[in-house]
């Protein structure tokens, strides 16, 4: 090409690229309200965003792949954990983890009840944004398999009592004001046989048993389906039934049952007290 042709080509290609860029920009802005569910941004969500910034949560956590990558990504946290769990955790993280026994250093931010409700509302809005699958690999925190121990002492709350119970450090309730969800998490890691040995709480990670990351949603969907023939009518009852009568509903998959009988042990109803089962139910129900 001569200089004149080169100049024309450069101008034309720049013009075409600019038109395409502007078209894509206009189309993106056209889709933003739908992709971000902007209609659901209410006062609570706005206040929650302010709480997120005021407490510098992004200094440790990430959302949409942006942040410090020091602590778990929270983009989809409300789809993994329910409001009761998140509320209890934010009120006092030491009920679940502390630096001495778990090597977790989530501080107690001393949020008010209103701030906790607002930041959860903000995170719930974040979780429903269509972020095209980003981040592709969120940071998840999951405890390892922990040998089972005597559960009769898991109710004891002080550090000295917890040590006396023989519970591994990663499963000890660490606060003197333990709530059912925190105790349920400890039981999940220490029941005999150990629940955590067969079930993962990470989405899509199936071990000897199916992942329980969305057990509350799965339970609700199962109760509405025509396949369920058990006695439960609520999510809580379904989870309890799954613990004490695992064959009442057989999870799809040949690796989980055979001949109409679940491979899950049937001894939890005898080995755990009603109170302990209630704690397990409270913990598992928090996973949506």
Automatic annotation (TrEMBL):
Residues 153-178 are annotated as: Disordered. The keyword Transcription regulation does not apply. It holds the Pfam family Cytochrom_C. Gene3D superfamilies: Cytochrome c-like domain. GO terms for molecular function: electron transfer activity; heme binding; metal ion binding. Keywords: Electron transport, Heme, Iron, Membrane, Metal-binding, Transmembrane, Transmembrane helix, Transport. Residues 43-127, 179-288 form the Cytochrome c domain. The chain crosses the membrane at residues 7-26. This is Nitric oxide reductase NorC subunit apoprotein. It comes from Paracandidimonas soli.
């Amino acid at each position: 090409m001569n200089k004149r042709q080169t100049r024309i080509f450069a101008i034309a290609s720049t013009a075409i690229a600019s038109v395409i860029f502007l078209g894509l920009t206009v189309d993106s802005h056209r889709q933003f309200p739908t992709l971000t569910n902007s209609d659901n941004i209410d006062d609570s969500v706005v206040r929650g965003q302010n709480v997120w910034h005021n407490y510098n949560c992004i200094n440790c956590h990430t959302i949409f792949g942006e942040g410090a990558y020091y602590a778990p990504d929270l983009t989809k946290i409300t789809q993994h954990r329910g409001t009761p769990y998140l509320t209890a955790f934010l009120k006092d993280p030491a009920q679940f983890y502390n630096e001495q026994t778990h090597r977790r250093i989530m501080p107690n931010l001393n949020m008010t009840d209103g701030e906790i409700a607002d930041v959860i509302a903000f995170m719930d809005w974040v979780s429903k944004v269509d972020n095209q699958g980003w981040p592709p690999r969120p940071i998840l925190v999951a405890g390892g398999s922990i040998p089972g121990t005597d559960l009769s002492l898991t109710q004891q709350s002080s550090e000295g009592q917890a040590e006396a119970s023989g519970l591994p450090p990663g499963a000890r309730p660490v606060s003197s004001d333990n709530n059912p969800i925190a105790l349920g998490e400890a039981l999940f890691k220490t029941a005999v046989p150990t629940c955590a040995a067969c079930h993962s709480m990470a989405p899509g990670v199936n071990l000897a048993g199916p992942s329980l990351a969305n057990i509350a949603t799965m339970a609700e969907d199962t109760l509405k389906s025509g396949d369920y023939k058990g006695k439960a009518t609520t999510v809580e009852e379904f989870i309890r039934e799954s613990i004490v009568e695992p064959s009442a509903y057989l999870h799809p998959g040949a690796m989980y049952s055979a001949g109409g009988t679940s491979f899950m042990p049937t001894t939890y109803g005898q080995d755990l007290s009603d109170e302990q089962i209630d704690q397990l139910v409270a913990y598992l129900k928090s996973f949506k």
